[in-house]
Amino acid sequence: MNIFVSNLSYAINDDDLRQAFEEYGEVSSAKVITDKFTGRSRGFGFVEMSDDNGQKAIEELNGASFDKKVINVAVARPREDRAEGNRGGGFDRNQRGRNNYNSNRY
Predict the structure, then answer these.
(1) pLDDT grade, residue 99 (50/70/90)?
(2) How many domains does the chain have?
(3) Quick check: is 31 in a domain?
(4) Does residue 80 form part of some domain?
(5) For residue 102, is it within any domain?
(6) Choosing a second label site near 75 at 20 to 30 A (CA), which of 2, 37, 52, 106?
């Protein structure tokens, strides 16, 4: 079972996450997700456990306080694929009249 853990303190590392879940059974893996540029925690992670132990951990740890923060724990959902061209955030010159801000510059 893959478990999603969110609202983690930025001070939490992989070993801390593993230790918290090992109280409920054997942990196959525990990973805090980090920013690829800064290496800083993004505040969430994933834990893999057997189904029975994982379900018990979810029930016990969801809403629990962990390093002074209330964490959210749930079954991880598969990541949805995003369309290649639909990432947002860019400027498209073909949309220049969209908001009338400096629309005459181009």
Answers:
(1) low
(2) 1
(3) yes
(4) no
(5) no
(6) 37
DSSP 103: T
Q: What is the pLDDT of residues 16-45, one digit of tens each?
A: 999 999 999 999 999 999 999 999 999 999
The residues, ordered by sequence, that sit 6+ positions from 29 with a Cβ below 8 Å of its Cβ are 46, 47, 48
Q: Give the list of residues 6+ apart from residue 81 with CB closer than 8 angstroms, or none.
A: none
Q: Is residue 104 domain-resident?
A: no
Question: What whole-number distance in Å separates Cα of residue 86 and Cα of residue 63?
Answer: 34
Backbone angles phi, psi at 103, to 5 degrees: -70, -15
63 class by beta-carbon count within 10 Å (0-12 exposed, 13-18 middle, 19+ buried): exposed
Collapsing DSSP states into helix, strand and coil, what is residue 37?
Answer: coil
